[in-house]
Amino acid sequence: MTAFGNTKVKSLSDLEFSWNNPMHLAVSTANNGTSAAVTVWDMRFSRTPYHEYSTGTSGVNCLSWNRSGQLLASHTDGTISCCDVYSKEGLTRAWHGDLGVTWTHSENAFATLSSKYGVRLHEMSDQRIYP
Asked: The Anaphase-promoting complex subunit 4-like WD40 domain covers which part of the protein (predicted)?
């Protein structure tokens, strides 16, 4: 068994392995009154994160990683964010719902799940999200 980082972790909410690098694991935190984050770990170097980005005060309830290295995060406030992990750039943030998100087999389309709107398909083009 391998433990990553600090043993006094925040409330964790989801994890997702990279399609590009099977040694990379993204872990998200739930909202526990502090700033939520998504942390990417390289399992060969478990003491220091490969990359971490703050998601603001809203917790993350679901992660989805596509083959291009883009990581979607579904937030408890009804937004989604997308980060290109390997270029370490935040791409976009948009409203969608509150339950989950997953990439389709296409590199630029994904589905969201909302308690209010059900399942919706979205397309990402030019770093923007379209319903």
From this structure: 41-91
Q: List beta partners, residue 121.
A: 111
Residue 32 corresponds to which tokens in the numbers above?
A: 């526990």
Q: What residue spans define the domains of the chain? A: 12-130
CA–CA dist 103, 45 (Å, integer): 28
The count of other CB atoms within 10 Å of the CB of residue 58 is: 18
The vertex-127 CA angle with 113 and 29, nearest 5°, equals: 50
Q: Two tokens at 88?
A: 């370490």
CA angle, residues 82, 116, 80, in degrees to nearest 5: 10
CA–CA distance, 122 with 23 (Å, rounded to integer): 29
pLDDT at 1: 44
CA distance 16 to 29: 13
Helices (H) and strands (E) in the chain, counts: 0, 12
Domain 12-130: assigned CATH number: 2.130.10.10
**Amino acid, single-letter form, for residue 119:** V
> Taking the CB of residue 39, how many other CB atoms lie within 10 A of it?
20
Q: Average pLDDT in the 31-56 region?
A: 81
